[in-house]
Hints:
With 302 residues, the chain is α/β, with parallel strands linked by helices. Helix content is 33%, strand content 21%.
Amino acid sequence: MNVLKQIESNKQFTRASDVVIPDIFNRRFFTGKEELDNVFGGSGFVPGFTFTLAAAPGTGKTTICLQTLELLEQAGKKTAYVSGEETQEQLAFTSKRINVSRVPLANMTDVDDICKAIVDNKFDFVMIDSLPTLTTRKKLNTREKEEYVTTKLIQTAKENEICIGVILHFTKTGTYKGSTLFPHSCDCNLIMTRNDEDETLRDVEATKNRFGSTGVMTIEISASGFTFEKVEVANPTTKATAKKSKREMVIESISDQGSSVADIVKDSSVSGGYLTTLLRELYNEGVLTKEGRGADTVYKKS
């Protein structure tokens, strides 16, 4: 049962108890590595699941994606890694270092070509690196291109029951590079950052997940890739533990009269690019409203 095929019935008001739940929701699959599965909410991947992974350069985005695909290949799923930034040779070199051998690799940027290829090959799970590199031969302005790319990827995922993940980059100010339309439209957003206490650790936070839980997982990385073993954080004041409630900390720090960014930094201890990204997400989700611009912006709870 395809979710998108129900779009006409979705326009009719139906009691929740009378809505038929598609069987696709019960056909979830896992990587087989508990800590990695927990990064995605712990409830498994629903066919047609779309998500983003955002991180600064050199954090390990390509590594974690390739390793995830390799595990899924071992579990019997057909996967692919599509890059608009690296050649097949570069990706193969990285894959060899982290012991990834089964994942098909391609260098493509045109979104129509990518979507046709992943449908024709009947892939189950595809990673695309990255959103800013995607192009189209259609003559569209910037906004129209953003809408077209987002619609094309999500429709392809839902109509063909293919999980599609898209890599995002952060600017120096900590905001998403390129359009934010896809992050707001997809099912799940992940942010990976370096752990402040230990350079060998990465904190991966799900800030939105329509099919699982949100929260932070801490995983270890080495020259040969991520270990995906449970990491015990000895000091409860470390970033990995504190970040579990940063979303709540930011919301709680905002007064009834509204708070400036400086006030939020002072009262929540959350700052920098991560705060900028989090405030934008909370605003776009309707959790917060804002008045003013730049340094004069005041955030209020909706």
